[in-house]
Amino acid sequence: MPSRALTLILIGIGAVLTVLSCLDTPPQTLLQAAAGSGAVLAALLVIDGHLSLSGWKRAPLMLQRHLPRAFAVGAAVTVGLSLENRGTRRHTGRLFDMADASMDMPGMPLNFALEAGQRQTLQFKITPTLRGLKCFEPAQIRLRSNFGLLDLNLQVGGSDSRRVFPNFELHATFDWLTGKHRLAEIGIKSIRRRGSATDFDQLVDYQAGDAIRHIDWKATLKHQRPIVRKFQDERDQSVMFLLDCGRRMRADDTQLGVGSTHFDQALNALMLLAFVALAKGDAVGAMTFGTPDHMERRFAPRKGRRSLNALMAELGDVEPTPTFSDYTRAAADSIRRHRKRGLLVLITNCRDEDATELSVALGLLRSRHLVVLANLRENIVGQIAEQPLVTEQSGLEVAAALAYEQRRRDMLRRLAMGGVMMIDCEPTQLGIELVNRYTALKRSGAI
Question: pTM higher than 0.90, yes or no?
Answer without folding.
Answer: no
